[in-house]
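Researcher: Here's the sequence for the chain we discussed earlier.
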Amino acid sequence: MNYAIAGLALVAAATLVNALLTRVVVQAWRATITAPAAAHPHPHEDPGTPRLAVEQGGHLPAFTLHAPDGDVTESALAGQPALIAFLRPNCGPSRESLADIQRWAEANTPAGARLVAVINGQEADAGPLLDAVVPLTGLTATEPPNGPVATAFGVRYHPSFVLLDADGTITETGIGLGSLPALDVVTV
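Model: Thanks. This is the structure I predict for it:
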């Protein structure tokens, strides 16, 4: 009889522990389900959407681009609108975006806007892309992949674009072919 009572006591204790653990798990699950969603800086974007480190409404990070016609810094772009294009030599979308970049440059640089082209890749591979971009702007430079300027802007995908107004405020950013509506608009 003592064994039966001990067995019943053991089953009762195990049932009580199981009920308490189940209650804790259910409470934690309910708290997770009913908690407000974590604030996402861009609520309309998928969290996996590629983004730059700079955002619309922000200002340029400090950078120095060593171009053949002299160094280009964020302060050198002050006073006029500018388009900064990050391109990669072995990237089809970068090459395809050249027509849009050229159309933007032809429409806007005569009015004082500046085009800056940063080619991220090995200089030996950049020849054809340099040949296409250099006639559009003297503010072109090649830097290694993940170079200092691309890093300052958070560029990981190509082509990437940053459009500025005259006071240096970022008005648009884009990643990928067709991602920057301003390239479809003739003037800034």
